[in-house]
Amino acid sequence: MSAEATNPGAPLRKRGRPRIDLRRLGRVALLGPVSRDRLPDAIGHVAEAHRAHHPDADLSVLRKAYVLAESSHRGQMRKSGEPYITHPLAVTLILAELGAETTTLTASLLHDTVEDTEVTLDQVREAFGDEVCYLVDGVTKLEKVDYGAAAEPETFRKMLVATGNDVRVMSIKLADRLHNMRTLGVMRPEKQARIAKVTRDVLIPLAERLGVQALKTELEDLVFAILHPEEYERTQALISAWESAQDPLTEIADNVRTTLREAGISAEVLIRPRHFVSVHRVRIKRGEMRGTDFGRLLVLVGEDADCYAVLGELHTCFTPVISEFKDFIAAPKYNLYQSLHTAVVGPEGAVAEVLIRTHRMHKVAEAGVVALGNPYTQDGTTAAHQTEPVDGERADPTRPGWLSRLLDWQESATDSDTFWATLRADLAQDREITVFRTDGGRRLGLPAGASCIDAAYAQYGDEAHGCIGARVNGRLATLSTVLNDGDTVQLLLAQDASSGPSPEWLDHARTPAARIAITAWLDAHPDGAQGPQRSRPDTPRPHAQPADEAPGGRGRAAGRAPSVAVDAPGAPVRLAGCCTPVPPDGIVGFTVRGGAVTVHREECPAVTRMRKTGRAAVEARWSDPGDWSGTTDYRVTLVAESFGRPRLLADLTEAIATAEAAIVSATVEPPSEQRVRHTYTLQLPDAAGLPGLMRAMRDVPGVYDVSRAQQPAATG
Fold first, then answer.
1. d(Cα 469, Cα 452) in Å, to the nearest integer?
2. φ, ψ for residue 628 (rounded to 5)?
3. Which DSSP state fits 16?
4. 602 catalytic per annotation
């Protein structure tokens, strides 16, 4: 396959600036450096493109870098036959057209000098400074003689770590790979396929995450041509047929221009053809292609408010397809992308997709982080090194959340194979969600499909081993709950350091950080019986119900019951077991069979039921309030609701015993939805100690609520 055959981007290439002629530049480059007062002709294209974005740029440093690159690469040839200097020139032109600043272009010209020539990093630093040296070092490959088969994954690890401090490293790498892919036709087919697969699995997702759509789309088409040649040829034929036919988008675009002009909105309306892979995806999704499926309308305006004005006019004057509307201005994508997306119905029912954005948004949509310019502040401190504000997932666009997470987990993936496989899996997750913490901390960025387990490890690191549950949007949720964009998450951790994850957690962990941490913990504790106990993500471990092991055992302890006076002289009085009233609860009595009066708490559901049936209430009141502290037979039934975890029953009974209460009976219901319900009938030495007892039980890790029973309590 020739280099031209692997360049599917050519038919849709923007008109205006011709692609660089490598052979002509090769001849120019062979002439060597020119006088000091002239810019070498070989970088004339670069200078022109650079000045288009940066009119006041100092080109002298580019001349200096070119002279060093040309002289150091002189005599080296590419496999295509061109002088090697044409490669750094082409890479630099790609970045210049995207709007990269001078430091990036300087490093791009020199990016292969340390790797392929006698030039050293110290020489680069001395001649061009620390920034250029850092960028060149970041993209310099590790030697196979030192790393063997691990050279490629470890080189990518090195580049990613360097990108964490300066995103321009990856910008240069992406442009480098794009030019290599453009000229890949001289390689053997098997090598083409290997390079294309790495490009597909690693470089294209990185280009997407960094928002560099101009590079991403061309890389996708080049990979598509190599790995799926038959589908590529079919798609190429479809596009050729569309280009030769009457384009229905042209009429719709004219109508949109007229509509916006009459509304007094200054806008540029363009037809934006889809690239090859995009056409292929639409064909797979819809089956038969429509004329409007081969492109989209792009409306460019000056201000954010104009975007919404355009949207209003389009939805007023055309029939909108509401299901196609998306607002990425109010809620930008994680890769900096901003636009309004909609679709309208044109003449004869043709549906046209429309993108609405400002010129600035368009520049960022095309060039991503490259369009941000120099990430260094005037005082020389990188934005990534500055203190991040609380609401900081996108506060530093040169260090987005996904990159921070990637850098965190790669430290734990010490094995090259593990790193390489995990990196590909991580980058395959091509959508991101944002969830919010309830503790006032910053938001968490997670891949789509992430669960509460992933959120726990993102927030707490290895401390998440002790996670016992979560609240999602204020409601209790299992650890396996899949989170949605915008959810609020509160993670609940056990205070018991022996808590640990179960193997089932791996079934619900999507992020590499969570999977690596869980796997490491499980490997360190292969014997679950002797190591820390493990918590399951869905169903808590059933607990036995040995109430007789708790202090007090079963049965009624000796002592006086609290005295209750009722307006039924001579009637036997008993306290209801469904709500176990104790002083100073408000109480009310009802006469039952045999003439006895059963006394309930006023809020007991049984009271409501009996009143609805017309049962007459009997007034009841506690007697001798000054003597309550001497009573030793206050009974109360409490319900503790908790997440399941090992030793929970033991910890609860210990808290009860510490409060000097005796357990008369206890039941633990079968676990349901990650929750366990414990019901205790307790004997208290002092009614005044009830609030403190309930607080102590709530403080037990895993317990999220303790309340008075309001239904019949089970008896032992």
1. 8
2. -60, -35
3. S
4. no
Q: Which of 453, 1, 415, 45 is nearest to 186 (CA)?
A: 1
Minimum mean pLDDT among 40-49, 387-396, 661-670: which range?
Answer: 387-396
Convert 541-596 into a string of H (helix), E (strand) and C (coil): CCCCCCHHHCCCCCCCCCCCCCCEEECCCCCCEEECCCCCCCCCCCEEEEECHHHC
Separation of alpha carbons 249 and 280, rounded Å: 19
SS3 49: helix
15 band by pLDDT with thresholds 50, 70 and 90: very low
**Token duo for residue 334:** 């994680």
Distance between alpha carbon 705 and the CA centroid of its chain, in Å? 31
299, 305, 307, 328, 623 from 358: Cα distances, Å: 8, 9, 7, 12, 78
Percent of the chain topping pLDDT 90: 32
3-state helix, strand, coil in the chain (%, to 5): 45, 15, 35
Q: Is the pLDDT of residue 603 over 70?
A: yes
630 contact partners, CB below 8 Å, separation of at least 6: 560
Q: Which residue has the higher pLDDT, 651 or 192?
A: 192
Kindly report, residue by residue over 202-223, the tens digit of the pLDDT. Answer: 999 899 888 899 999 999 999 9
Encode pLDDT of 462-501 as tens digits: 888 888 888 888 887 888 889 988 888 988 887 655 668 8
| SS3 readout for 594-660 | HHCEEEEECCCHHHHHHHHCCCCEECEEECCHHHHHHCCCEEEEEEEEEECCCCHHHHHHHHHHHCC
The residue-averaged pLDDT of 29-47 equals: 60
Radius of gyration of the chain (CA): 35
The pLDDT tens digits of the residues spanning 324-337 come to 899 989 878 878 88
* Least reliable range by pLDDT among 41-50, 107-116, 271-280: 41-50
Q: In angstroms, rounded to a whole number, what is the distance separating the alpha carbons of residues 132 and 372?
A: 17
- 650's CB contacts (< 8 A; 6+ apart) are none
pLDDT of residue 658: 82
DSSP secondary structure, 207-267, as one string: HHHTT-HHHHHHHHHHHHHHH-HHHHHHHHHHHHHHHHS--HHHHHHHHHHHHHHHTT---
Whole-angstrom distance, CA of residue 130 vs CA of residue 328: 37
**pLDDT for residue 105:** 96
Q: Other C-beta atoms within 10 Å of 230: how many?
A: 7
Closest CA to 224 of 232, 215, 216: 232
Q: List C-alpha distances in Å: 516 to 402, 413, 422.
A: 16, 7, 9
| One-letter-per-residue 3-state SS of 484-523 | CCCCEEEEEECCCCCCEECHHHHHCCCCHHHHHHHHHHHH
Active-site pick, 41, 101, 115, 463: 115
Across the chain, what does the average pLDDT equal? 79
Q: Is the dihedral of CA 221, 164, 366, 425 positive or negative?
A: positive
CA–CA distance, 29 with 40 (Å, rounded to integer): 9
Strand partners, 382: 376
Q: 80 burial class (0-12, 13-18, 19+ CB within 10 angstroms)?
A: middle
Catalytic residue among 41, 116, 660, 705: 116
User: 209-213, 671-675, 695-699 — which is least confidently predicted?
Assistant: 671-675
Q: Would you say the C-alpha torsion 347, 351, 357, 362 has a positive or negative sign?
A: negative
Is residue 348 annotated as part of the catalytic site, yes or no?
A: no
- Once rounded to an integer, what is the mean pLDDT over residues 400-404? 72
User: Given the DSSP bridges, would you call strands 432-437 and 662-668 parallel, antiparallel or unpaired?
Assistant: unpaired
pLDDT at 704: 80
Exposed e or buried b per residue across 340-349, where buried means at least 16 C-beta atoms within 10 angstroms of its C-beta = bbbbbebeee
